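Supplementary notes for students who missed Thursday's class. We covered one full example, reproduced here. Read the sequence, then the structure, then the short commentary at the end.
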Amino acid sequence: MTSSTSTPRPAGLGRRLVGIVIDWAACLAITFGLIGQVVDITPTGQSFYPLLVLFVEHVLLVTFAGGSLGHRVLGMQVVPVARPRISIIQGVVRAALLCIVIPAVVTDRDNVGLHDRAAGTRLVRV
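Structure (token representation):
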């Protein structure tokens, strides 16, 4: 356990990848288990709806709870860099870049994803 004065460690790539797999599985379950029971999902929708659910999940949960389902399960939290709380704009920017994928898997030397750098957030271990 770390003390409150120490800087939180950035989440590693492996932990982040497992977290997104958990989130993606949850989004697929929501899409085909819930939405698919109400709406006839077209082949195009089979690709689009899970991504839309992932976007909405990340915007809402990161902004208001500090992390998605996958983050929480694996002991991670999204923290703002220069503000006391994550704004909805930061959540939208982070989620949009996550959905593009590449900015989320490309990291700098501090192990911070480009989507986090653009949004002014950091994914840390708690």
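Commentary. The first strand starts at residue 76 and ends at 80. The mean pLDDT is 91. If anything here is unclear, bring it to office hours.
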